[in-house]
From TrEMBL, chains A, B:
It is a multi-pass membrane protein. One of its GO terms (cellular component) is plasma membrane. The chain crosses the membrane at residues 308-326, 338-362, 383-403, 409-433, 445-470. Acts as a magnesium transporter. InterPro entries: CBS_dom, CBS_dom_sf, Mg_transptr_MgtE_intracell_dom, MgtE_N_sf, MgtE_transporter, SLC41_membr_dom, SLC41_membr_dom_sf. Residues 225-281 form the CBS domain. This is Magnesium transporter MgtE. Keywords: CBS domain, Cell membrane, Magnesium, Membrane, Metal-binding, Transmembrane, Transmembrane helix, Transport. It is found in: Cell membrane; Membrane. CDD domains: CBS_pair_Mg_transporter (cd04606). It comes from Allosphingosinicella deserti. Pfam families: CBS, MgtE, MgtE_N. Belongs to the SLC41A transporter family.
């Protein structure tokens, strides 16, 4: 490869990289098609030449973008480019499907190239006997590291951490640290901070490499290091780890076992996709779309979503039976049947708004016991403003259209009440679930819709009956 | 302060830090109360002693957690602890409210301590005349840097970047780089990578500090650096910057101007909160909750949400007028009025599920032109499975309950049709908006609800009429 080829920096106006990626760093459809045309025609050299300049993350995207039945052929064609770095970047479902077609010793070979955390992520979802076969084919060091990681709970810090890190004794000078780093041949090369430990291998501080570079050799490392450090317990849930990285703007953090010994490190690049996943799952959880991954097998998507729709069916039946109870009222004035979905629908939407805000504030630790009452009060004040506005618009409109001021007043009162109920349920329900130790996003949306649907019709048809509107 | 005080690492079993933070790194309500009791009693020394050991991010949280009218007193009590590092971590709304009470020269003093990007974030939302007063009070270097940053569009890379970075010529050796880093007194101390530039100050590569530390002095920096680098154009939107950091697992990246010159750098700790914000905004956008920040002024929340509810009212009127059209049918069989919200509601929910999945796949660049048809097909297959399941359950249930198989068949057919329509609208609408260059989350949810509401009743009441059910 000529030097001009490698020197082209990604993201600049190189026509070469522009023909592969669009302005949003997505692989262009024409490029994807071109690669697959070569693959289908058996022109593996041409396919490889196209794929080779891509970043591993883009090669992973390529596999995700092509159809499920094309992936195997692509994998065979560009075999030597399909390394651990590519598999580490690949969507879980696509990767699982792909490695199902590999022999255990092939999986082991790739796992050996990967960092422990990525290898664990690849192996943890395999069938138990295949997993054992892969572990047997690994070299003893890698096997020990992966087996140890697998002893920690899923989605815990122990599975995310790397064991390769730099730890130095606290009595060393900067000069000793530099000499150690320059001499040690088998040390890891990718690290951002050096951990300083005491005699019991407990972390006592961290030192950014830039400080080491900028400090005279004779200074003790203990005098430059930052003593305030954020330690991650090995069994901490990855969501908490992500929040901690985010809150304290960490680049890397030491992972400690139950007795406080340094056992690994987590770096921010391993955590960024977890921050993204955890932050974006609320929209999916609130709508009951499960994992919501477009690469998820259809059967799993179906199972996750239909469960939610059945629950929704159940809550809708409650509203339906309330309406059924008011059959006599509706018979006398069919317009009520046309108007009641408005009260239900707009109320439900107001509830979802409050719910989305509350769930997000809880997830980002912005809403704690200290400001719970303020948050409730705040949502109720917004609900009053919204309720009054919508009630006036709807009440006046309906009153004029039907030339029936009582009907206008009834629907306005019902609308206002339902928006207040929606605000109340939307803020209280996730708070109650959080207090009870449950995920505030999962069950609250079904509950809030149930409340706004049934209360909406109950108040509307109840008022219509009681007001003598249909007398 | 005694040494044992500072040596306590956060996150370990120190009773001291445990009394301040709970297991999720949130400030304990008792601690917040204790601080505010001291503040109210005028015991500023005691308040300061409690707050001093906190991380700046936790001091910022403290301000967010106390009531709006307590913040000023807290700020006065712990004045010297309220530095640029704390303000940089603070919620925008809380910070804006707080600095409104400062004199311009006080704001300038704090801005002088901050990194350019944080100072810009603090100043950019001020009134124009106050902003000018602050800029005048800054020292000329800081002023120039901030004024230059303000020339870039809001939410662009130019506003996020820091100007303090390390750039070295490509012909240097590792030894020269190390000597330069150790000698330069006015260099920044917080950096993770060194940028290598050519004679025109164009970046040609980056070098991790760990590589510099681990390479012999005589080697040329051009031989160790990574040539494939991700460059960020200075006018790139922050959402794109965040996606790029995430995709390529970057720690820092060079920012270049229109002519390709290195003008700044962005580090991952500045981008993590943007990744979080961009990822979590879908739930808020889909529900029409605007910015959805619990610290947002009530009037702004009201304005954002009521606009959405009014739009929702409009779409609900469409469904209402369709129902009105079938008045005759409903009069003959009032049970239809009780059942139609089920068809509308469950259909709406199925649409929201598809919508949430599609919007997320678009936001994370997982769904591109290459796999659009596969995604549509996938959603339709899930819709068929869901639709058939729910239609059978509902149809059989209704048929048995009302002892009316035709009614069961009508509602089953309507339910199936509506779930299919919901799946279709839920996947097509965001795709169409994205293609048109609009944000797929914002308008699609209103549209999908409108479709499922009005099509639901149309099909249900239409079939009920046409089937001779109410003949």
């Amino acid at each position: 490869m000529s030097e001009s080829d490698i020197e082209l920096p990604r993201g600049t106006a190189s026509t070469d990289s522009e023909s592969r990626l669009d302005e949003d760093d997505r692989l262009r459809p024409e490029f994807v098609r071109r690669v697959m045309d070569h693959v289908e025609a058996g022109e593996t050299d041409a396919a490889r030449a196209l794929v080779e300049p891509l970043h591993p993350a883009d090669i992973a995207d390529l596999f995700e973008l092509v159809d499920s039945d094309e992936r195997r052929a692509l994998a065979i064609a560009i075999e030597e480019l399909l390394g651990g770095d590519v598999l580490a970047e690949m969507n879980d479902h696509v990767r699982d499907e792909l490695i199902d077609q590999f022999e255990p010793h092939e999986v082991a070979e790739v796992a050996g190239e990967m960092e422990t955390d990525d290898a664990v992520a690849m192996i943890e979802d395999m069938e138990e006997d295949e997993q054992r076969a892969v572990l047997r084919a690994l070299d003893p060091d890698d096997r020990a590291a992966i087996e140890e990681a697998l002893t920690f709970p899923e989605e815990s810090a122990g599975r995310l951490m790397q064991r390769d890190l730099i730890a130095v004794p606290q009595h060393w000078t900067i000069g000793q640290v530099i000499d150690y780093l320059r001499a040690g041949d088998d040390l890891t090369t990718d690290f951002w901070e050096v951990f300083v430990v005491d005699g019991r291998h407990h972390p006592v501080g961290t030192c950014m490499l830039s400080w080491i570079l900028r400090t005279p050799r004779h200074v003790a490392v203990a005098d430059v290091m930052k003593r305030e450090q954020t330690l991650i317990p090995v069994d901490m849930d990855q969501e908490e780890v992500a929040l901690r990285f985010q809150k304290y703007a960490l680049i890397s953090a030491a992972v400690v076992d139950g007795s406080g010994r340094l056992v690994g490190m987590i770096t921010v690049d391993d955590i960024v996709h977890i921050i993204q996943e955890e932050a974006s799952e609320d929209a999916l959880l609130l709508s009951g779309a499960g994992e919501g991954d477009i690469n998820e097998p259809i059967r799993e998507s179906y199972k996750a979503r239909v469960r939610w729709l059945i629950a929704n069916l159940g809550t809708a039946l409650i509203a339906a039976s309330i309406i059924g109870y008011f059959e006599g009222t509706i018979t006398k004035m069919v317009a009520l049947a046309a108007l009641m979905p408005i009260v239900m629908g707009v109320g439900g939407n107001a509830g979802t708004q409050t719910l989305a805000v509350t769930v997000r504030a809880l997830a980002t630790n912005q809403l704690t016991q200290s400001n719970t009452w303020r948050a409730i009060l705040r949502e109720m004040r917004v609900a009053v403003l919204n309720g009054v506005t919508i009630a006036i618009l709807l009440g006046v409109g309906v009153g004029l259209f039907f030339l029936n001021p009582i009907l206008g007043a009834v629907i306005a009162a019902a609308m206002l009440t339902n928006i207040l109920i929606a605000g109340c349920a939307g803020v209280m329900m996730p708070l109650a679930l959080e207090r009870a130790g449950a995920d505030p996003a999962v069950a609250s949306s079904i509950f809030v819709t149930m409340v706004t649907d049934s209360m909406g019709v109950l108040v509307f048809l109840g008022l219509a009956t009681a007001s003598g509107l249909v007398g």
